[in-house]
Amino acid sequence: MSAAARPQLAACPACSTAPSPEQIAAMSEVKSGRIMLSLPEVHCAACIVAVERELAQTEGVQSARVNLTLKRVAIEADADITADDMIEVMRTIGYEAHELDSATIAATATNKSGRDLLMRLAVAGFAMMNVMLLSIAVWGGAADATRNLFHWISALIALPAVAFSAQPFFKSALSVLAVRRLNMDVPISLAILLASAMSVYETWLGGEHAYFDAALSLTFFLLAGRYLDHRTRAIARSAAEELAALEVPRADRLENGELISVAIADLEVGDLVRVKPGGRMPVDGVITEGQSELDRSLLTGETIPVFAGPETTVSAGEINLTGPLTIRVTAAGKDTSLHRMADLVAMAESSKNRYTSLADKAAGIYAPGVHLLSFIAFAGWMYATGGDVRMALNIAVAVLIITCPCALGLAVPAVTTAASGRLFKKGMLIKSSTALERLADVDTVVFDKTGTLTTGMPELTNYNDFGDQDLAIALALAAGSSHPLAQSIRTAATANGVTAATLTSISEVPGFGISALWNDKIVRLGRANWVGADALDQTATYLQIGDSPARAFTFTDSLRDGAAELVNAYKSQGFAMHLLSGDAPATVQALANKLGIEHWTAKATPTEKSEFIMGLAQSGNKVLMIGDGLNDTAALTAAHVSISPASALDAARVASDIVLLGTDMAPLGDAIDIARKAKRRILENFGVAVVYNMIAVPIALFGFATPLIAALAMSASSITVSLNALRLR
Fold first, then answer.
1. Domains in the chain, please, with CATH?
2. Quick check: is 537 catalytic?
3. Which of 295, 448, 557, 650 is catalytic?
4. CA-CA distance, 221 to 225, in Å (whole number)?
5. 474-497, pLDDT tens digit by residue?
């Protein structure tokens, strides 16, 4: 796609507001020749230097800047320079690269909630420190007029700060009270409001104690926990947006003999679209012109390309391999087969959404408990003092403050942030807030095959069966094709130093193979029925020289990096493992035997995969599903927790709880262990909160919870929880 066309994508369906001036400016930059690439493998300053130096030396490139944090490079280049050109440059120096849609990133880049939380946290922290300084003077013995003055100054600082900083808790509490429910923010809001109100009342009456510092400390520490939780999710959102930007939803529509690039949403049934070799089918349709072979592995799991010609039905997501095709649209956008899995996914999601997080369980017990305890304190002291409302209210407020969940508020986000950071360093992105907790429960692992355990790229298995002459001819024929089997022959022959034979009259017959003349003999490389050979029951392409019988090059799907190590790691941890695939039985069995996976299923449809996962769940198993294709989407959603590689189709990544950013599968072997440690830390933090309350509640109930004690107790519990979470790093 040309740089000039790319800005039209800014009207993303997920955006509910018009683009901001900054976004419009970003789109203008795209028009002027801005290319953005994702570089998942850059990791240090040396990588930055290597990438920027190579790009600077490339003709047509005006400037290049690498962002190591986001693992991307922004390139200013001449209008005739394409993203594919830049990807090839990166490949030559050993870096994997993917095109990013700059307009989509610009349209989703604004993140006001994070800045809002950070600003409120800063205000609460600044006010807390100033009020603490005044409180130290009061705790140190300031009395009478001096104490009252310090209390009034504290009120002037604390009340506006609390009114501004605590708004996230107030809004959340009001929203659940409106539907007659309780959450953790209800007792938090009540404690902050009552502490502030009672402090003003006590100051007005010249009282000895005021809780301005405690109200601010409570607000500050809980905002810190809220911000930690936000940052964890923001990293996931940022990377998810970047991954989504890898897929450009456009097609080349044929209008009056000319190709016009249009958004998929603008296509209608009956339109004609052209799909070039190597392109992905943008719509469901019927071929009206052209012959080719289709890679349907993302949809069906089949690794063997299938022939396609006029009247062949195609589906969105299939890859056109060898020849240009003209497609008559029968369904586009949400009407395609790609979206027919939505019902399956929705059904499966309903079961996953019923999972209750540890934090929600704690809140369900804590919120009514602390209200009841505070009421008991108020009623008890009203009875004990013969109706002293002021004293009873002070003690009830002290109970609310000292039992308010600073430790509980930090228990989950502190651990989640630490664990997510550790997994991110290993190349894993946590998308779901409960993914770690669910991953810790796993006892069964289900793998997809193509694109997950294997690369989906064929590997030549019988190279040594051919002589140098045959290989030289095969290399010369394969050099002119983008077919994956031809590419595999080219890779193997080149790696062994084979020199291509001299051929003439080379031509590719889309959907069949390549033919040429060699020493006045016709030589062909392609499908069995085209060269007159009997097809083998495995992936193969056939070489025929003159009138000699055709000979088969055989292939197997090559393993992804780290796949064997991952299976061995899970085996050593005692997990039951299953291999599910839509591929042929012989291929699936060969891979299962190679990796030592005892249970395997071949020719599985998307519905059968989903039903298999649900069957395991009904038997009491907690299933981890690892897959990458459209045919895995429903199964990924049905699983207790799911993982997909970054190379997966967008639908699979959306359905997954965790995304593997790199190409090496081995780091996934540590993921469950890290998740189990994280769950232990969360439970330990809840234990800290329980022990803290067992000590603090009696102090508050008996009237000994002065502002100093409340501030020290809250700070100690929060610091303890945070330090315990950091042990994960």
1. 1-110 (3.30.70.100), 426-455+560-675 (3.40.50.1000), 458-559 (3.40.1110.10)
2. no
3. 448
4. 6
5. 999 988 777 778 888 988 998 888
